[in-house]
Permease (Cribrihabitans marinus), 343 residues
Amino acid sequence: MADLIQIPRSARWQIAEHLKTPWAAIALLLLCVLVLDPGNLWQTIILAAGSLARTSQYIVLAVLFLAYLKATGAEVLVARAFKGRETRMIVLAALFGGLAPFCSCEVIPFIAGLLALGAPLSAVMAFWLSSPLIDPPTLLITASALGWPFAIGKAVAAVAMGLFGGFAVRVLVAQGGLSDPLRPRQAASCCGCGPKQTDTPVWRFWHEAERRTRFRTEFVGNALFLFKWLALAYVLEALLVQYVPADMVARVMGGSGLMPIVTAALVGMPAYLNGYVAPPLLAGLIDQGMSTGAAMAFVVAGSISSIPAMAAVWSLVKPRVFALYVGLGLSGAILAGVAFQMV
């Protein structure tokens, strides 16, 4: 009889995967409110739904732009930034990092391919530091949650981080350090995973059936991805505003001194969720008393040093390059927070 009611392993795996989705997290959070504070459930839903509705126009613009870049094959423009003089490569890599239409799973093989093909570590580091910070969807979502000044400030910080890291690495390499950055297995297994610099973007992609299909796939996939993560983000923001005491946030991360910025950068490194969840949470924290400089330090540090990103970086490069990446990310986040606070 017991054998008849056992759940197959594949079914258990599928159930476990569903329980790890943002939808499951939303359901669990709302269930907790229903059990612990039922009178506040409806207010939580209204706050989250209202914020999500206000952001919907940005979601549409973001996924349309991202789908267009994917359908046209615009990634090749980023690859071409890694050709020519090293100084020019660093500048272009930092600039293109904010526009690169790559998700987190695509950046690592892209970086591995560039290093295996002999691109200088300085230019690759410039792209590596700037790329996680901002992209078109993140820019629009940040603007909708925190305003255009903060979104533009984050974009400027992304480029500045790329330039800071790229030229710092160039100095270190010139002094004889950081040679052969890839782990042996990565250097040997990257053949074919680098970008193709000989391709040409097809801006009028709708004339090709394959590109039209890719546009539809990217649009639907990214729309669903953004919607589910933003739904979770706004539920978390509603809970944050309602249950986290404003005076506690103001004591820890308020004010204009250096310590709130350093604290936010250190907290942001392990606590960061992703670039789409962070802006609504930061909006709630700022409303509770968090300084704008601390908010900038938090989002910059978290983008560069989130746990999935760190695991991927560790698997790709040698420990000294990994340590440099983390150090540049943390110090750059603090500098970005101080600069934004002063401005």
